[in-house]
Amino acid sequence: MGLFNVTRPTSFFLTGIPGLESSHPWLAGPLCMMYTVSFVGNAVVLQAVRTEPSLHAPMYYFLSMLSFSDMAMSMATLPTVLRTFCLNAHNIDFYACLIQMFLIHSFSMMESGILLAMSFDRYVAICDPLRYATVLTNRVISGMGLAVTARSVITLFPLPLLILRLPICRSNVLSHSYCLHPDMMKLACTDITINSIYGLFVLVSTFGMDLFFIFLSYVLILQTVLAIASREERFKALNTCVSHMLAVLAFYVPMIGVSIVHRFGKHIPRYIHVLMSNIYLFVPPVLNPLIYSAKTKEIRRAIVHMFHRLKM
């Protein structure tokens, strides 16, 4: 059966939050606030790194990549989320849904890869500081950014094709205000084993491996820090990792929570599943610029200088 001869709906119906439909107008305000904080916060970080010479260093280049990824993730969900909650417009074209699904999963994987690259940056800075400048050159940083992007595109390119091969005839109603692969494949009226296996393979081989290597880098960092004689120097070294550790927690804790609820929470109300997914997608882009602005004095100083120049 060809891809274009498969039974499928012309559009999907985006639910929003099941069971809380009457509260959608009230939820629109907080969602708009979260998008505003995300866009403004990440844009300010990007501009500060671009204009402040003191931030032209590997750590802040990776932070720029993280901010760009967060803004792109917000842009990928913004159109359908605001249409669903603000305009009560729930329909999305089938192919537009496929594109949004690919973008959401891609930018999420990019964020995971960037967090791994940032952990490598902290590892080299603390465990091998004399080689820091020679290991993390601009060429290496650019290569890591391209590798993270290429991995996301290549790994996730099959997802839309795997959905296209499925006849979708059970329903056209999705559980969220955006399109995700697990949500779409469940509407198929045929065997979805290939989709499930590939989805699990992607999860383990990318997000799972990223988290494992981030954990390993911090084990090595902790070993190095504990070998430092001075308590003040130990504290100073660990303090440079605090922002990154908080960003890792903000990204992976909701993600693991979503996975646990999805696998083992069959009897939990559906709106809990949806709220957990929303937290996973919306909270990291909001928290990351706040975390780095609050915990990194160089970023704070650069932002103050930037606004001072604008005022002048």
Automatic annotation (TrEMBL):
This protein's record includes keyword Cell membrane: yes
Gene3D superfamilies: Rhodopsin 7-helix transmembrane proteins (1.20.1070.10)
Keyword flag Secreted: no
GO aspect biological process, one term: cellular response to lipid
Membrane-protein topology: Multi-pass membrane protein
Swiss-Prot/TrEMBL keywords: Cell membrane, G-protein coupled receptor, Membrane, Olfaction, Receptor, Sensory transduction, Transducer, Transmembrane, Transmembrane helix
One example GO MF annotation: G protein-coupled receptor activity
InterPro entries on file: GPCR_Rhodpsn, GPCR_Rhodpsn_7TM, Olfact_rcpt, OR51/52/56-like
Major subcellular location class: membrane
Location within or outside the cell: Cell membrane; Membrane
SUPFAM superfamilies to which the protein is assigned, alphabetical: Family A G protein-coupled receptor-like
Membrane spanning residue stretches: 26-48, 60-82, 94-120, 140-164, 211-229, 241-265, 271-291
Highest taxon in the source lineage: Eukaryota
Domain G-protein coupled receptors family 1 profile per the UniProt entry, residue ranges: 41-292
Pfam family, one: 7tm_4
GO CC entries: plasma membrane
Family note: Belongs to the G-protein coupled receptor 1 family.
Protein name (Swiss-Prot/TrEMBL): Olfactory receptor
Species of the source: Cavia porcellus (Guinea pig)
